[in-house]
Design goal:
Number of helices: 6
Structural class: alpha/beta
Order of helices and strands: EEEHHEHEHEEHEH
Strand content: 15-25%
Strand order of the largest sheet: 1-2-4-3-5-6-7-8
């Protein structure tokens, strides 16, 4: 794992790059975390996911949005729009570091919203994983060629989101899967972080390997 600063001097972002181990898949994966406390609680999930991705041959980059985590900025400077811009910076950095042509964006909770909005604008993103997305009023306009929608509980809101995504260009390639797990964005121990659900992380790391 290589910690680094990415972005500009005016807007530095803290990031961690995990190189692929063994046979490389020539793919980079960028993890878009949840916001605020959920992002802090999901740090273990991001770290374990990066390790699993590296073991499967993919390069992994995780980062903190401007105004969150170890990145510069104040809390009030974090918004969905600013986070999307940060995700685009992270994708460009992953492409440069990994020297690959294909990128998967993985978003958890609010990070799934960020990933879905960033994917149509990002270079080389051909796969998108939306994990337990926060259902909001945002209207998505396009999807990459492959999208995986993962939820812990089947709900009308998530099925409505699935139907909306399926109606978009490339929407026929949306996979909707229910994988129950303990929420990794909720702290479950005194160390202040949530669990890293092995089945879900294995599913993401092994998707289309």
């Amino acid at each position: 794992m290589i910690p680094m600063l990415i972005g500009s001097q005016a807007r530095p972002l803290h990031a961690i790059f995990t190189a692929a181990a063994g046979r490389r898949r020539r793919r980079a994966v960028v993890f878009c975390p949840p916001f605020r406390d959920e992002g802090t609680n999901a740090q273990r999930t991001g770290r374990v996911l990066a390790q699993r991705l590296a073991a499967s041959g993919a390069e992994a980059l995780r980062f903190d949005y401007y105004g969150s985590g170890e990145s510069a900025g104040e809390d009030e400077e974090l918004s969905v729009g600013s986070a999307v811009e940060d995700a685009l910076v992270a994708v460009d950095e992953a492409l440069a570091l990994a020297k690959v042509r294909h990128v998967t964006l993985v978003g958890l909770r609010a990070g799934a919203l960020v990933a879905a909005l960033a994917a149509p604008r990002a270079r080389a993103v051909d796969r998108l994983v939306l994990w337990e997305p926060v259902v909001d009023d945002y209207e998505f306009t396009a999807l990459p060629p492959r999208t995986l929608l993962l939820v812990a509980v089947d709900s009308p809101a998530h099925r409505q989101l699935r139907d909306h995504l399926a109606a978009l260009p490339n929407g026929a390639n949306v996979q909707f899967e229910i994988m129950p797990c303990t929420p990794p964005w909720l702290a479950t121990s005194d160390d202040g972080v949530g669990p890293a659900p092995p089945d879900v992380l294995a599913r993401i790391a092994g998707w289309d390997t």
